[in-house]
Amino acid sequence: MASEDASSEIDSDALALAENLRITLGRFVRGVKAQANTPTTSQSETLSLLDRAGPLSVAELAGRRNVRHQSMRLVAGQLEAEGLISKMPNPADGRSQLLFITEKGNEELSRAREARTLQIASLIEERLSGTDRQTLEAAIAVIERLC
To answer: Which fold, 32-146?
Structure first.
C-alpha cells in the first residue's frame, strides 16, 4: 500500500503530532459549527466551494468535493430550490451549465461564517489567558506554514 510505504518513511514523532493535530482540529471545527448552529452539511461545503472557486459545473463540484455526480446534482438541486445558487450557460461548452452562488447564498454563507467566528471569539475570551492567546497566535502562524 502506498500510504503504508509513505508512513514508514516519516518519523514516528511527526506521525503522532500529525494525528493529534488532525483529531484536535477536526473536533474543534465540528464543535464550533455545532455550537454556532451551523453544522457541516454538503450544502454549506458546496456554497463555500462556489464562493472560493467561482462558477463550476456539477461534475467539477463533484470532483472537488470527492462525491458522486448524482449526489452533487441532488445537493445542487436543493441549493437552487432555496435560491442559494443559480445556473448560467458555460461559455466553454454551450451544452452544459455552470453553477454559481447567488446573493442570497452569499448572505447565508456570511451569516454562518460570522456565527462561527463569534463562537470562536467567545471561547477565546472565556477560556484563554493572555499568555494562551499569544501561544494560539504563534500556533496559527506555524499552522499557516503547513498550508
So the answer is: Arc Repressor Mutant, subunit A (1.10.10)
